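REQUEST ID: PR-0412
SUBMITTED BY: lab tech R.K.
PRIORITY: routine
TASK: structure prediction, single protein chain
INPUT:
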Amino acid sequence: MRFIILTVLVLLAWPAAPVSAQSDATGQSIADKLPLFVKNNCQQIRDPGNQLFCGDAELAAAADRLGTAIEARLARLPDRLPAIEENAIWNRQRNLGCGIIGQTAVRADDVERVKACLLKVTEERAAILRNPDFDCLAANTAAGALICADPSLALAETELNSQVLGLIGKLDPTAARFAFAEYGRWTRERDRKCNLVGKENVPLAELESAEDCLAAYLKQKTDHVAAAKGDPKKVFGRQVAADSPDTDAVDFCAARIHAANSCGNFLRINRVYALDSQVTDQEAQVTGEIEMVVLAPFTTCSKVAASCTGTCWDARTGLPQPGVGGRERSGDAFNVTRRIRIQRTFAFVKAADGWRCREDELTPVISGTASGGS
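STATUS: complete
OUTPUT:
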């Protein structure tokens, strides 16, 4: 349900300052052209395109059909979060394609033309999403494309996904957050082990050597889940240490920090790299880079920013702005699909079961950048 809610946020945009209903040469306003505009309080919606969906019954019905198609697609996807990014990108392209520029309100005399365009592209989008083949076309990672293109890999991933979600469904909300974070870490670990990180634009024919690795990883995890015999505590929440102070260790540490702070509502960890390490017999310091993708808007200097990215940010430069604390600031926010990269040094201590992370927050970061999105 959390994923569906996030997707709805993406499609409806983020409420902010209301957009005024502009009038045309005849004195008519957009409210006069949209029967439900006043009743639904549509002037409070920031996105001009979504104002039309709010104020027109025909567009609202098309949006409902699109929402049903989105939910059906999410049910098919083993990893649902990238679909949120893709929906957000489509949402912006939808507006641009129909002549809506940024937050500029639609003129009353343009309503019919823009409405016809929005209706057409929304119906087309719903039809596309109902086609299972679209999932392969929309795969935004090399591993995702390989799995989708191979029926046996796709079946294996679907089976694993089904079993894992069944286990997580038995957990309380707090434990489920940590389990979802750990499941996301499995995907990143898989891509690293199969040498597929950063190969999104490589032709599939050149990646076929990774298919055996993917199959073996999926089988290993499926067997692990099956061995738990329906007990989620035998799969999640047991691993508290990493084998070596390396990229996997940094990923495990970052994933647990994100789960503890409910960051999955706002950010997805996309990639993790270990850049440098200093290791002794009992202690280690590992400097890692963590790339995150924004799933839902949040203020650039807020509790979410501090807890989930380790710092406040300067929205204009996209650079960290440390030392400002967690104070909320109005106006500046990170929008959906923005990518944030931070570098931070993590401390680990050697224990009987491996290397344990000694960090419980991302602050302070060494450096960072925020790019993409709008």
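NOTES: The CA atoms of residues 302 and 326 lie 5 Å apart.
REVIEWED BY: pending
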